[in-house]
Specification:
This protein is mostly helical. Helix content is 68%, strand content 0%. Among the domains are: 55 residues; 42 residues. The protein has 4 helices and no strands. The radius of gyration is 38 Å and the shape is flat. It holds the Pfam family DUF5304.
Length: 164
Amino acid sequence: MSEELPPPGTARDETADEVPAVDADAWAAACAEDLQAEQDRRRARYGPPPGSAAEELRKLVDTVADKLSGLQSPLLGAVAGPAAQQVVRQVVQQAKAAVEPVIERNPDVFDHLAAAGGELLAAYRSAVQAQERRWTGRDDDARARDERRDDDGGTGPGERIDLD
């Protein structure tokens, strides 16, 4: 053996047993940095992520209210225009006053409704696709049945009778 262990009583070199200092959380820190960089990249490319369903509903109500308030009605004419706009503003304010407390008290409900709506849409899409397959496949099946009926090949239990 070229390497011999020193006798048990002799002093050993302590630097040989030292482990280089390693950051225990280096992997976690690197993953966190990568995740943050990816989120920043997506935010720059696609804009801010959508909020909760309650926040999105609030934005929708605000947008619709702004559009309706600024709407000019050519059907009512110049005389009834300002009065009609005042009525529209009043209706919009009443609608917002009715919707806001519901959104504030039950934000989770809107998330659940959004999820349920997505599931209903998926079920509807699946049903429509299945029906479309049946509709488009019906012609092929009918032709195949006609061909089988005409080309019996003598395999049936009875005899083919030509009525022409």
